[in-house]
């Protein structure tokens, strides 16, 4: 399939065209995506913008009605931000000494294989624990001060026990219905990458077979970024 990003305002027209070309349409609310089929074969897919809650009722899809948090964590660095009306209102980038220099491996991966050892490892472990405590403190601040409708996350599964097992509790559960996986790869969490992810989520990702290509008469926006888009 081909992939491209389109502005949110082009979604209603494109959904109407895809609906007319498909025999069956399914909406996955967890992934906020529409799937279009002919003879049980997927011919198209639209990952809707972050502020869309319904593909049918546009009154539910107002950007000003959606507040959200974006959280991106990699070993030793994390970026978290709170957004209103599509704009970043507050953010924080956290860093920690978590990577073993010679091996290039995080302290978490080292603990999973060999356990604690020397003083350097103890320092990295202490910084790792503080790293997640600081992240959860910032998340708690957002949850307590603002209405949060959605929580976009991007982190490896190996980090989950440290985030949700921190001394400072995560202000939401793993199965919180507001949580969704950010459907694009982010290699290095920074403030700039947080803004890039936000820009990506405010648009829609369209996937389509050749036969639907003529329906996409909208401006081509970042269509070369196929390798960064996960198959939602």
Automatic annotation (TrEMBL):
Pfam families given in the database record: bVLRF1 (PF18826)
Main subcellular location: cytoplasm
InterPro entries per the UniProt record, alphabetical: ANKZ1/VMS1, VLRF1/Vms1
Superkingdom, taxonomy of origin: Bacteria
Keywords, comma-separated and alphabetical: ANK repeat, Coiled coil, Cytoplasm, Endonuclease, Hydrolase, Nuclease, Repeat
Subcellular location: Cytoplasm
GO cellular component: cytoplasm
MF terms in GO: endonuclease activity; hydrolase activity
GO biological process, one term: ERAD pathway
VLRF1 domain: residues covered: 64-204
PROSITE patterns the record matches: VLRF1
Family membership: Belongs to the ANKZF1/VMS1 family.
Name under which the protein is recorded: VLRF1 domain-containing protein
Organism: Echinicola strongylocentroti
Organism placement in taxonomy: Bacteria, Pseudomonadati, Bacteroidota, Cytophagia, Cytophagales
């Amino acid at each position: 399939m081909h992939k491209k990003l389109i502005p949110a305002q082009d979604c209603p027209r494109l959904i109407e065209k895809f609906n007319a070309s498909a025999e069956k349409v399914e909406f996955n609310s967890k992934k906020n995506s529409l799937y279009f089929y002919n003879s049980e074969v997927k011919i198209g897919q639209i990952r809707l913008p972050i502020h869309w809650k319904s593909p049918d009722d546009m009154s539910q899809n107002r950007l000003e009605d959606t507040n959200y948090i974006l959280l991106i964590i990699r070993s030793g660095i994390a970026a978290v931000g709170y957004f209103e009306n599509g704009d970043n209102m507050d953010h924080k980038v956290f860093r920690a000494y978590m990577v073993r220099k010679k091996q290039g491996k995080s302290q978490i991966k080292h603990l999973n294989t060999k356990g604690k050892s020397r003083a350097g490892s103890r320092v990295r472990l202490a910084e790792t624990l503080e790293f997640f405590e600081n992240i959860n403190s910032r998340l708690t601040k957002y949850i307590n001060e603002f209405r949060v409708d959605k929580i976009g996350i991007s982190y490896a599964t190996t980090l989950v026990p440290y985030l949700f097992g921190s001394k400072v509790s995560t202000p939401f559960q793993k199965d919180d219905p507001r949580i969704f996986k950010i459907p694009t790869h982010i290699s290095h969490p920074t403030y700039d990458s947080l803004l890039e992810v936000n820009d990506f989520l405010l648009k829609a990702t369209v996937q389509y077979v050749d036969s639907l290509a003529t329906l996409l008469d909208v401006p081509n926006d970042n269509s070369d970024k196929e390798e960064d888009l996960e198959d939602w």
